[in-house]
Amino acid sequence: MKTLSHQDARSFYDRLGAKQDWQRFFEDPATTDLVLALAIGSAQSVLEFGSGTGRLAESLLTQHLPPAAEYVAIDISSTMVALSRQRLMRFGSRVRVLQSAGEMKLEVESGEYARFISTYVLDLLSEADIAALLAEAHRVLSPGGLLGLVSLTHGPTRVSHVIEKAWIEVHSFRPSLVGGCRPIELSGFIEGSMWQVRHRRILSRFGISSEVAVAEKLPE
């Protein structure tokens, strides 16, 4: 299935990224489940790839993370980066907001992060980019660190099947009409020798289904 190029994805979210938070009506149940499964209260360092407007980062920093925890937020869109920096400014030096050039290679140190989070991002990447990003997540996580993912996925109900079919047809015609995102199965990317799956759940809201997956980094 075709996906948006990095440049097309950047352009789309530069134009419309400020409106991304409207999606919380179906995203919030999944991200809430993710936060619980990640045991985020004990994490001293977090890297979020595809941080969007900074809404999740703000929630984690104010309600869940220890007071001294450090947070790195990365996004491809200059609009998103600006919104995140403004939103997270009050946390001072605890937070760094970085702009990605679109490459999956991350300009951060290896083994430095207790949690790696990416929500509603892998579902707009190509399979090659997903594999590259997960390899980078494994690199930057500390031993025993946790990977936390959320994406659109295949629905378990009749209503969700109908919505999924329509979504895929629109995506096949023009991916930008749905922000480049399409339903995928996360578990297919994190099974194997690099990860031990600790949590997996599918949640549907108004017929839109999301997969939550948490996996522990295994030694190489």
Structure notes:
The chain is an alpha/beta fold and 220 residues long. The protein has a single domain, classed as Vaccinia Virus protein VP39 (Rossmann fold). The protein is built from seven helices and seven strands. The chain has a seven-stranded mixed β-sheet with strand order 3-2-1-4-5-7-6, sandwiched between helices. The longest helix has 16 residues. The chain is globular, with a radius of gyration of 16 Å. The mean pLDDT is 88.
What keywords describe this structure?
alpha/beta; 7 helices; 7-stranded mixed β-sheet; 220 residues
Helical amount:
25-40%
Poorly predicted residue ranges: none
Structural class: alpha/beta
Total beta-strand segments = 7
Can you tell me the CATH topology? Rossmann fold
Number of domains: 1
The CATH architecture designation is 3-Layer(aba) Sandwich
Specify the CATH homologous superfamily. Answer: Vaccinia Virus protein VP39
Query: What is the 3D shape?
Result: globular
Which band does the percent of strand residues land in? 25-35%
Spatial strand sequence of the major β-sheet: 3-2-1-4-5-7-6
Largest sheet: 7 strands, mixed
The residue-averaged pLDDT reads: 88
What's the Cα radius of gyration? 16 Å
Distance between the termini: 31 Å
The sequence of SSEs as H and E is HHEHEHEEHEHHEE
How many H/I helical runs? 7
- The level 1 CATH classification is Alpha Beta
